Every structure is written in structure tokens, then in C-alpha cells.
Amino acid sequence: MEIRPLKLRFHCINNKHFTPLKNGIWMRKEGKKVIIPNCASYLNKHIKLNQKVLSIKNHMFLQSRMLKQNITSYDVPFFIKSFQIK
């Protein structure tokens, strides 16, 4: 399986960072040393979204919390409620 190169800040992830397996691929230690710090750096980057300047990680948390609130507050029609498994 050929891995398309992925350019991160100062590094490039390519085939040398992966080991092919029978049913997929495995990232080698060298690849983890590159991708994990870059992902952490990305998640800690601050951006403005919905008039709030927060880290991407905190925006993701707030968006998932809002989704949960919307799902749990959704009023299910009575005829569907009778079919719910208890």
C-alpha cells in the first residue's frame, strides 16, 4: 500500500514511517515522533469561532457538548416513544 506524503510543519510523513501489514498498515516509532507533536500543536492552536477565541480542542469540546444538548432536548413524537426499547 502506497502512502501519499503528508507535509507537516517541518517534516513529511511518507512510506518510511509505516510498516505494511496483512490487513492494513502500522505507524513506526519515527512516524509517531513526527505526527503526535504536530497533532498536539494543532489542537492547542487558538482560533476565533462563534465570536470566541479558544483552542481548537476546546472548540471541539464545546461543539460536541452543544450537539449532545440538541440531541437530548429533541422532542420525539409520541408514536415513536411507544416503540422505544427500555
Descriptive report:
The chain has 86 residues and is of the alpha+beta class. It has two domains: 6-43, no CATH class; 46-81, no CATH class. The chain has three helices and six strands; from the N terminus they run E-E-E-E-H-E-E-H-H. The strands form three sheets. The chain has a two-stranded antiparallel sheet. The chain has a two-stranded antiparallel ribbon with strand order 3-4. Strand 3 and strand 4 form a beta hairpin. The longest helix is centred in the C-terminal third of the chain and has 18 residues, at 56-73. It is flat. InterPro entries: CRISPR-assoc_Cas1_C.
In helices, the fraction of residues equals 40-55%
Tally of strands:
6
Low-confidence stretches: none
Count of structural domains:
2
Shape: flat
Residue-averaged pLDDT: 81
Q: What is the chain-wise order of helices and strands?
A: EEEEHEEHH
Taken as a percent bin, the fraction of beta residues is 25-35%
Adjacency order of strands in the biggest sheet: 1-2
Terminal-residue CA separation: 46 Å
Query: In terms of quaternary structure, what is this?
Result: single chain
Integer-rounded radius of gyration: 21 Å
Sheet/helix structural class: alpha+beta
Largest beta-sheet details: 2 strands, antiparallel
Number of helices: 3
InterPro entries: CRISPR-assoc_Cas1_C
Short description:
The chain is of the alpha+beta class and 86 residues long.
Compile the SSE list and pairings.
Blueprint lengths: L5 E3 L2 E3 L4 E4 L2 E4 L1 H15 L2 E4 L2 E4 H18 L4 H4 L5
Antiparallel strand pairs: 1-2, 3-4, 5-6
